[in-house]
Amino acid sequence: PVFLNVYDLTAYNDYAYWFGLGIFHSGVEVHGVEYAFGAHEFPTSGVFEVEPRRCPGFMFRTSIRLGSTTMGPLQLRQFVETVASHYNGDTYHLLLKNCNHFSEDITMRLVKHPIPSWVNRVARIGWLCRCFLPECLQLTA
Question: Which of 7, 15, 43, 74 is the most buried (most CB within 10 A)?
């Protein structure tokens, strides 16, 4: 099975969630490992592994089964390493290339299923309203 694990970035999500909003982190769980993407200042992969549903610094909200893969653990690891080469930590962007974009990329390739739209809705709204945002969020990835 392939799961999307979703985490809250703020306690305000408890209220915003009911309106289809919220600021979330996500990772993809397969074969007992969760893969996610995060920022750092180096031109090396920002993809990391964590114990499923226990990503440090975030509050676990829910796990959503998106499908199944026929890849074995070793084949999956090679697949993730290949995809990870396109997700360097210094290319992370809150609106254009965040953890939820990575999760959607992985799930679309693995099970041909997008992540639920509410998970990354705030980034999409932010991109549409980017002219009102601080300059640091308007830069391209």
Answer: 7
The answer for residues whose C-beta is within 8 angstroms of residue 81's C-beta and 6 or more apart is none
Of these residues, 25, 31, 40, 129, which one is catalytic? 25
CA gap 5, 112 in Å, rounded: 17
- Number of folded domains that form the chain: 1
d(CA 24, CA 9): 5
pTM score: 0.89
Whether 99 is catalytic: yes
Catalytic-labelled residue, pool 55, 86, 99, 136:
99
For the domain that residue 102 is a member of, what is the CATH number? Answer: 3.90.1720.30
User: 113 an active-site residue?
Assistant: no
Q: Which domain holds residue 16?
A: 2-137
